[in-house]
Amino acid sequence: MTDQADTRKADTEDPSEKLLHLLAGKWLAAAVSAAASLGLADVLFETPLTLEDLADRISSQPDALCRLMRVLQGEGLIILNSQNQYEVTETGALLRSNEFRELALFVGSPFSWDPWSALADSVRTGESAFSKHHGLPLFEYLDHHHEQANLYHQAIDGFSKREARAVAEAYDFSSARRVADIGGGQGRLLIEILSRWEHLTGVLFERPTAAERAAVSFANAGITERCDIQVGDFFKELPRNADVCVLMHIVHSWDDATAIDLLRRCAQVVGSDGTVLIVEGVLVPDARRDLTNLLDLEMLVLCGPGHERRKPEMRRLISAAGLRLENAAPLAGGVRLLVAKPRS
Predict the structure, then answer these.
(1) Region for residue 178 given its phi and psi (left: phi exceeds 0; alpha: psi -120 to 50; beta: otherwise)
(2) What is the domain partition of the chain in residue ranges?
């Protein structure tokens, strides 16, 4: 009996230890972002290096670097091999450029990090901590700060790359002709869709800073001749002559009334025979540990009234916009592809 009790006690995490580990999340996120800033994964992906050689390659102080590397080892991002050289693990390699490095840089950048210190104020008021901290709503701020806008769009590109590929594979575009990506950032989604479905043409509708980067992305992907870029405000105008509109992580940036207005505009663009594709995280019914719950807090900090929604809430938005939900398919994590058609 005593042995069983001791075993249960050993298997139960001490509450104070658990809370301390949760509070240490700030330090872990900062360590991962610092690793991305230093370019550790890019360097070590090429070849394993000793501490001294690595410090020399990234212009760092060896003792300070060693302290960072211990944390990264503890989290399984780095290992020390038998030759006393550091190597990146499969997870650590994802911090390379054009993978998740840009997302890690965004998370740790002052313009993104600092507003989180006012999360409690956002909870009290329901208003965006980002807007209060910077004096402008997120997207207006990005219009005036090109360096931060570039980092933001690179981060979103890395965050959504797997989902974009999954959309191109999950939805049958064979009967479509022209796809409009509304607020599609650097164009990652259109690159994946048009690369897989070679009969399609596309149009990206974005703000100026993102449109500039998208033009480069489309040229690199070899789809410039098949894809137009239009700059504007999607609450005032939308592209015409598209039979599919895609909104990927756009609806969650807005309150219900604004989201319904946008969905209604998309329904008008595609017409009675068209399709509106919505890619969003969907909150699970219970409060289990889930990435979408954390993203919901991110939306509170960044956008205030913007938020993630449960499936019934998404159904109500879709219906209020004159659409009917035809299908819902899982993509990655808690993200879903919602296929909506205009109601007759």
Answers:
(1) beta
(2) 2-95, 160-342
pLDDT digits (tens, 9 = 90+) for 103-115: 999 999 999 999 9
Architecture per CATH, domain 2-95, reads as Orthogonal Bundle (1.10)
Q: What is the mean pLDDT of residues 151-173?
A: 93
pTM: 0.89
Among all residues, which ones are annotated catalytic? 252
Does the domain at 160-342 match CATH 3.40.50.9100? Answer given as: no
pLDDT of residue 287: 74
Q: Which residue has the tokens 């997207």?
A: 139
For the stretch 6-50, pLDDT in tens is: 444 445 778 999 999 999 999 999 999 999 999 999 999 999 999
